[in-house]
Amino acid sequence: MTEHASVRYLVDDVQAAIGFYTGHLGFTLNTSAAPAFADVVRGPLRLLLSGPASSGARATPSGLGGGGNRIHLEVTDLDAEITRLRESGLSFAGEVVSGPGGRQILLTDPAGNFVELFQPAAR
Hints:
There is one protein chain. This protein is α/β, with parallel strands linked by helices. It has a single domain (5-120), classed as 2,3-Dihydroxybiphenyl 1,2-Dioxygenase, domain 1. The chain has helices at 14-24, 55-58, 78-87; strands spanning 5-10, 28-33, 37-42, 45-50, 70-74, 97-99, 102-108, 114-120. Residues 3-120 form the VOC domain. It holds the Pfam family Glyoxalase. InterPro entries: Anthracycline_SecMetBiosynth (IPR052164), Glyas_Bleomycin-R_OHBP_Dase (IPR029068), Glyas_Fos-R_dOase_dom (IPR004360), VOC_core (IPR037523). This is Glyoxalase. It comes from Amycolatopsis deserti.
């Protein structure tokens, strides 16, 4: 059995979220009970996509924002990824930010959840 770290994202449209993560970010569909729930996997990350009818969505009090939480995906060529995703019609929340650890940009999924694409600094 493969060990996964699981993260739950609340989404408005499970099918759109499946398409986003599998079509653009290299995840594979593990299970689906759309429109309520699905989970997608990339390496050791299992992303739980919970629609409005899922138990995960009902357990969250209304009115709470997502804050700055996001999943963090490491890439080898950030500029190439940005170009590829823009050519697919996706947009970003802001511009590339550079720091001592590397460069990053935020992408949003169809429900507005953040995905950080990160390229580490050369060592």
